[in-house]
Amino acid sequence: MKWSEITFKEVVFDSDKDDWSSPKVLNERIINKKQLLFVIEDEENNKFGGYITSTINSYNSWISDSNAFLFSLKSNGRINGMRKFNISNSSYVFL
Fold first, then answer.
1. Among 65, 60, 79, 75, CA closest to 36
2. Residues 6 or more apart from 80 whose CB is under 8 A from it?
3. If you write DSSP's letter for every residue of 28-77 in order, what string do you get?
4. Chain segment 64-95, per-residue pLDDT in tens
5. Cα angle at 59 between 51 and 20, to 5 degrees?
6. What is the mean pLDDT of residues 53-64?
7. d(CA 25, CA 80)
């Protein structure tokens, strides 16, 4: 299933390897970057995330992006298969 035209080439932050005790490390890794994919796996093995095409150019302010979306890859029975969710208000996509 293809949801974007992007080929991802590098991991900029991995919570298993990088310091997650402060948002500073994550903030420094994503500032001035665009086309970011966030994948989260929780303690119940659900896998989900979001994708944003716009450049992250500031902290603590909303970023708009009409191409951004959320997704579920695995949800332990709540959602069948992988699913993409469009964001209804593209003015408030990422903070």
1. 65
2. none
3. HHHTT--SEEEEEE-TT--EEEEEE-S----SSS-B--TT-EEEEEE-TT
4. 999 999 999 999 878 888 999 999 988 988 88
5. 70
6. 90
7. 34
CA 65 to chain centre: 13
- Check: CB of residue 87 under 8 Å from CB of residue 53: no
Q: Which contiguous run of DSSP H or E holds residue 13?
A: none
Reduced to 3 states (helix: H, G, I; strand: E, B; else coil), residue 25 is: helix
What is the per-residue pLDDT for 52? 93
Q: What is the DSSP letter of 8?
A: -
So what's the pLDDT on residue 1? 54
| pTM score of the predicted model | 0.84
Residue 72 · residue 82 · CB < 8 Å:
yes
Tokens of 61: 């302010």
Interacting residues of 48 by C-beta distance below 8 A, sequence separation 6+ = 39, 40, 70, 71, 72, 73, 74, 75
